[in-house]
Amino acid sequence: MPVAITPIDPVSRPDFAARVNGIDLRQATLPDDIAAIEAGIARFGVLVFPGQDITDDQQLEFSRHFGPLEQATGDLTPPDKRRISMALNDISNLDKDGNVLGRDDKRRLFGLGNMLWHSDSSFKEAPARYSLLSARKLPGEGGNTEFADMRAAYDTLDEKTRREIEGMVAEHSQIHSRGQLGFTDFTEEERAQCVPVRQRLVRRHPASGRRSLFLSAHIGAIEGMPIPEARMLIRDLTEHATQREFVYVHVWQPHDLVMWDNRCTMHRARRYDSAQVRDMRRTTVSDEVSTLVQVA
């Protein structure tokens, strides 16, 4: 059966968020299927693969078709306390032994930053291209993930704002995003790893050619602009970009795998009962170079 990619909401969002059927990620993926998925992600930004009961190794094998994978260095869990491979980001509320993290656990508090609107690894010189998140175990309710279409957000800006932000360079750091939540419990070594990196505020997608906003909660400054003014601009742009008409809400089902393109989307997790298990595994395909050397 060939891969079938169909919009989830063909009326309101015909070009944002689609469902992928006709593929079993437990099996070897054919080159034609990979080509169809790459065309689909370029068009829709978010792809949902329902019912994919996969292992870590199968997720890694599928993800590597799309480029080099990041190592999971964006959290505060040292390698000797991780419960899964460094090739996967542990997007869960579990410790190494599979126990739910305590309410005041530093790793849980740091992870709450995932509930802010962000783009994965924008705080790295080479940010994320694709993220692939697999739902292994879900809480009884809550824990949805929301995705915002940053292409539509850019397209609907007024011309004056588009001219104003053209060429702007923003500074991204996890210190800033976690600071918004009052989390400041970083060691000196962790702070040294969170030096701000520079990224374009407007970028062009290499496949579709469409421009999009590159926003994230990690942005703490814009070069050449006073910080209060810069943060007010980022807040205004984020409010614009996350209006309901630009947002797809994914209600997770067991074994869903969702793939999204960080070059044209922003996302956030939603609240759930933290006493219940939420076990998610994310592979992250690197974009390999900074946005500063990509075509604007």
Model description:
With 296 residues, the chain is α+β, with helices and mostly antiparallel strands. It has one domain: Double-stranded beta-helix (4-Layer Sandwich), CATH 3.60.130.10. Helices cover 23% and strands 26% of the residues. The chain is built from 8 helices and 15 strands. The protein has a 7-stranded mixed sheet, with helices on one face. Strand 2 (13-21), helix 1 and strand 3 (46-49) form a beta-alpha-beta unit. The chain starts with a strand and ends in a 10-residue tail after the last strand.
Q: Rg, please? A: 18 Å
The largest beta-sheet arranges its strands as 1-2-3-13-5-15-4
CATH class (first level) name? Alpha Beta
Helix vs. strand class: alpha+beta
CATH level 4 superfamily: Clavaminate synthase-like
Summarize the biggest pleated sheet.
7 strands, mixed
Chain-averaged pLDDT: 95
Strand content: 25-35%
CATH architecture: 4-Layer Sandwich
Counting structural domains, the number is 1
Helix content: 10-25%
**Overall outline:** globular
CATH topology: Double-stranded beta-helix
Name the helix and strand elements from N-terminus to C-terminus, one letter apiece.
Answer: EEHEHEHEEHHEHHEEEEHEEEE
